Predict the structure.
Amino acid sequence: MSQPLDIAVVGATGSVGETLVQILEELEFPVATLHLLASMESAGSSVMFAGKKVRVREVDSFDFAQVKLAFFAAGAAVSRSFAQKAREAGCSVIDLSGGLDDALALVPEANGEVVDSLALPALLASPSSAAVALAVALAPLKGLLDIERVQVMACLAVSSQGREAVNELARQTAELLNARPLEPRFFDRQVAFNLLAQVGATDEQGHAALERRLVSELRVLLGLPELKISVSCVQVPVFFGDSFSVAVQSRQSVDLQSVNQALDAAASVERVENDDYPTPVGDAVGQDVVYVGRVRHGVDEDQQLNLWLTTDNVRKGAALNAVQLAQLLIKKMA
Amino acid sequence: MSQPLDIAVVGATGSVGETLVQILEELEFPVATLHLLASMESAGSSVMFAGKKVRVREVDSFDFAQVKLAFFAAGAAVSRSFAQKAREAGCSVIDLSGGLDDALALVPEANGEVVDSLALPALLASPSSAAVALAVALAPLKGLLDIERVQVMACLAVSSQGREAVNELARQTAELLNARPLEPRFFDRQVAFNLLAQVGATDEQGHAALERRLVSELRVLLGLPELKISVSCVQVPVFFGDSFSVAVQSRQSVDLQSVNQALDAAASVERVENDDYPTPVGDAVGQDVVYVGRVRHGVDEDQQLNLWLTTDNVRKGAALNAVQLAQLLIKKMA
Ligand SMILES: NC(=O)c1ccc[n+]([C@@H]2O[C@H](COP(=O)([O-])OP(=O)(O)OC[C@H]3O[C@@H](n4cnc5c(N)ncnc54)[C@H](OP(=O)(O)O)[C@@H]3O)[C@@H](O)[C@H]2O)c1
Ligand SMILES: NC(=O)c1ccc[n+]([C@@H]2O[C@H](COP(=O)([O-])OP(=O)(O)OC[C@H]3O[C@@H](n4cnc5c(N)ncnc54)[C@H](OP(=O)(O)O)[C@@H]3O)[C@@H](O)[C@H]2O)c1
C-alpha cells in the first residue's frame, strides 16, 4: 500500500470531477486529504467522499503547495491558468482538458510504459474520451495487423460536452414530446431526435479541433506517429456513452480469429460475439471497459477489419483513465 | 402531357406508400384510376388523393390486369407473392422492397439512362434509401475522382423500419422521461437515447443483409462493379432522415474546389458550406434533395474526401425516387 497522498480535484462539481471522486473512493485510492475545487459558482457546496462531506472551494485562492497531485477537469482555460503554478509548487498534474500542449498523453493499456521515464512532478494528459476508447481497443491489435489506415466515425454522447449539454437534451426532448416550441440553448439547434454533423467549430480545412486532437493523440498512444487516421465526430442524442464505427485497413489479409483472441486477452476490453452487439445504454454506461462488437471483415475485403466500440465517456474515457494514471504515478512517488 | 395511367400502390397505408400517394398528387402525375392496396388489416380504410377519398382494398383479391403500373411498398414477401403475377398481367412494376433479385436498381440521377434499354412491362427496383442517397451524392463525383474505396457509416432513422418503429421510439422516449419501466416491443432493446450497432440480423461473416444490399446496389447505380465499399449501418434514435458519414479514398489528390462545383451542379444535391452543416431534422425531412456538408480532405490526407450526407429516407430515399422512376417509364409508354 502506498503512502496516502494529499490530492486536489479541480472541477469536482462537474460530470467528470464527480465521477473521479467516486472512483477514488471505489478503488480505495490512498488519499490523505482531498481538496475539491471549482468556480465561485459552486464554492460552498459539498460533495460526499468516503462517508464525509467535503466542502468545495474556489480554485482561484487554492495553494497547490498543499497537494502532491492534482486532477484538472474544469476546461482548458482553467488548466492553462493553474496547472503550471501547481507544478511549480511541486504538484504532479493529470490534465483532462486537452488544453496543455506539453502534457504527455497516456492510456495505461496502450502506452503505460512511458511513465517509467517521467520526472516528478509529472505533467500527464488523460486524452479525449474518444482517444482512450480507440487506444484501448486498437493497442492489442497493433502487433497483429500491418495497419495502413484507421477510419473512425465517433458518435459522441451529449455528456461529452458536460452537464449543461445533458440537461439540454432532456429539456429539448420533453419540450418536443409535449409539443411545446423548441428553444435551443446550449446547442445552437435541435439535438433531440437529430444528429449534429459536427462537434465544435471547424477550422479552414473543415476539421473540428476535437477531430485533429483525436488524430494526434491516437498516433502518440499507439506509438505510430505516421499512422493515417481519418475521423468524423458526430453529436448524437444519447446521454452517456460514446460509440465508434471503426475500419482498420491492413496491408495484409486480417485473421479474425487472432483478432478475437487478442481482444479477449486485452485488459479493459470486453468483446461481444456477433450474435449480439454492445450498446452505450445497455452495456457501456457505468462500466470500466471498452466494449467491442461487430468484429468482421469488410464486405468482399479481407484486408479490412471492421469494429464497433462503445464505452462510458465520462467514466472509462475520462475519470477512470485519470485515476489509472494516478495509480501509475504513486508507484513512482513511493 | 402523357396519357393518364391506371396505377396501383401496394402498401398504401404505410409510411412510404402514403408519401408516394402524396407525391403523385404533388407532381400531378397523370393518374387515371388509383388503386390503393394493403393487407386485410387496413382494407376498408381510406386515403385522400386529389381531393377524393380512395378506399383501400386487399392486395390478395386485386386483379393487376386493371393497371399498367404498380408500386410495391409492402415488404419483400408481398413483392415476391404478387409482382410476377402483375407483370404477367401486363403491368410494369416498381418495387421498393428489395425483395426481387431480377429487378433493375435505378436512381435517375445516377443510372437513369438504363431505362432506354428496358422492355415493357418493366421490372424496376427503387433501391434502399441509403443507396439512393449515396448514389445521388457520389454519381456527380465519379468522373472527377479515381475512386479506390468508399467507406460509409449509415445512421438510419427508425422510420426506415416502418411505422411501428416510429411509434416505438416515441413510446420508449415517453416511458423513459416519465421514469416508467421500459418494455421494448418492436426493437429488442432500448433504442431511445441509445445507438443500435446493427440493423437486422447478421450473416456468418457478420454483415447485415442491408449492408450487403447497399454494397451491391451502389456498385450497380454507380456503374462500378468492382468498387470497394465498406458499410456499417447503425440504428439511431431519430424519427425521420438518414445520415451518412462517407470517406472516399481516391488514388489521386482530391481537388475540393472541383468537388464543390460538381456537387453544386448536380441534380437533387444541396451543398452546405463548412461554416454550417445539414441535419436530418433541420434540413432533410420533407425535402426532395440529398444534403451534402462537411466537404473536406482527410486529416493530413488529400487523397481522401470526407462528406456528410443527410436525406429524407421515406421521401427522397424511397417514395420520390419511385415516382421519378415512374416518370421515366411513362415516357417509354407514350
Ligand atoms: N465529459 C466528458 O466526457 C469528458 C471526457 C474527457 C475530458 N473531459 C474534460 O473534462 C473537463 C470537465 O468536463 P465535464 O464534462 O465534467 O464538464 P462539466 O460537467 O460542465 O463540469 C465543469 C466543471 O468545471 C468547473 N469549472 C468551470 N469553469 C471553471 C472555472 N473558471 N474555475 C474553476 N472551475 C470551473 C465547474 O465548476 P462549477 O460547478 O463551479 O461551474 C465544474 O466542476 C473538461 O475540460 C472536459 O473537456 C470531459
Ligand atoms: N421506410 C423507409 O425508409 C423505406 C425506404 C425504402 C424502402 N422501404 C420499403 O418500403 C416498404 C414499406 O415500408 P414502410 O416503411 O412504408 O413500412 P410500414 O410503414 O410498416 O408500412 C407497411 C405497408 O405494407 C402493408 N403490408 C404489410 N404486410 C402486408 C401484406 N401481407 N399484404 C399487403 N400489404 C401489407 C401495410 O399495410 P397494412 O396497413 O394493411 O398493415 C402497409 O401499408 C418495405 O418493403 C420497405 O422495405 C422503406
Observations:
- The first helix of chain B runs from residue 15 to 26.
- The mean pLDDT of chain B is 96.
- Chain B is about 30% helix and 25% strand.
